[in-house]
Amino acid sequence: MYRVHAPPSDEKLAALRGFLHGLGISLPPGNQLHPRDLDRVLRKAAGTPDALVVNEVMLRSQSQAAYSPDNIGHFGLALTRYAHFTSPIRRYADLLVHRALISGLALGSGGLGDNEFALCAGAVDRGLPD
Q: Among candidates 127, 124, 98, 99, which has minimal Cα distance to 113?
């Protein structure tokens, strides 16, 4: 199970670029955007009267992260693979990650069985809450 975070949509990026243009700040073209570019904007705005609104608009321009068996990477963290879990285990996805690690690393009983991997993917497809 991956915690995935898609890059911002073209529409949200256009709105963000328009807002930042009004402040004299630019971003690289959409297909060249990297999380470090957004970090650069936040650093540039830090300590200015616009810092809070820049931060808010930047957050609203982002896609929402989600759990998925399909790995599309995590744009916000600039990672190609990311598995998110909390402690103590409170979420279904956390339990899946721990059980998969137990199986994958042969750490003993309690891991996912071969037939359970397909069931887990089906639960995600049905949109069960985490």
A: 99
pLDDT tens for each residue of 6-52:
999 999 999 999 999 999 999 988 678 899 999 999 999 999 999 99
What element of type H or E holds 19?
helix 10-21
- Identify the sign of the CA torsion 35, 37, 43, 49: negative
Q: Which two tokens stand for residue 104?
A: 């994958």
22 lies in the same domain as 59: yes
> Which band of pLDDT confidence, cut at 50, 70 and 90, is reported for residue 75?
very high
Tell me if 100 sits within 8 A of 93, measured CB to CB: no
What residue numbers bound the domain in which 24 lies?
A: 8-64
Give the number of domains in the chain: 2
Indicate whether 12 and 56 sit together in one domain: yes
